[in-house]
């Protein structure tokens, strides 16, 4: 993704919004990886990553199902995440996020793809 750790005001605001959504899920941990991306993980598997360093601002990347990825890539602002897009990851520049309810559902989908079955069952039951 070619990013650095998030330090801009816009980027930190994006992180805070995503953090509030991701940390509601069971056993989620926040981590800064070797590339400076902030990631939210379950069972040490990332389902959301964020970074900045691109000219167009901070970005949000989410692990999705292949069918969801296909749907999102047909939308105006989503694009296949470099290097990991073949695994269902999609990205969007933070300023283009307008529907936080949809983002929340994609975060949950990513969580369910990464979580062990016992945790996935807890989330699916609610």
UniProtKB/TrEMBL annotation:
<dbReference type="InterPro" id="IPR038056">
    <property type="entry name" value="YjbR-like_sf"/>
</dbReference>
<dbReference type="Pfam" id="PF04237">
    <property type="entry name" value="YjbR"/>
</dbReference>
<dbReference type="InterPro" id="IPR058532">
    <property type="entry name" value="YjbR/MT2646/Rv2570-like"/>
</dbReference>
<protein>
    <submittedName>
        <fullName>MmcQ/YjbR family DNA-binding protein</fullName>
    </submittedName>
</protein>
<dbReference type="GO" id="GO:0003677">
    <property type="term" value="F:DNA binding"/>
</dbReference>
<keyword id="KW-0238">DNA-binding</keyword>
């Amino acid at each position: 993704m070619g990013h650095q750790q998030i330090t801009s005001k816009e980027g930190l605001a994006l992180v805070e919004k995503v953090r509030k959504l991701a940390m509601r899920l069971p056993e989620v941990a926040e981590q800064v990886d070797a590339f400076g991306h902030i990631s939210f993980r379950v069972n040490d598997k990332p389902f959301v990553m964020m970074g900045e360093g691109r000219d167009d601002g901070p970005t949000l990347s989410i692990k999705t199902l292949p069918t969801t990825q296909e749907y999102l890539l047909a939308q105006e602002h989503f694009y296949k995440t470099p290097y990991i897009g073949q695994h269902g990851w999609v990205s969007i520049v933070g300023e283009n996020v307008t529907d936080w309810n949809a983002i929340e559902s994609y975060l949950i989908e990513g969580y369910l793809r990464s979580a062990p079955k016992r945790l996935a069952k807890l989330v699916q039951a609610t």
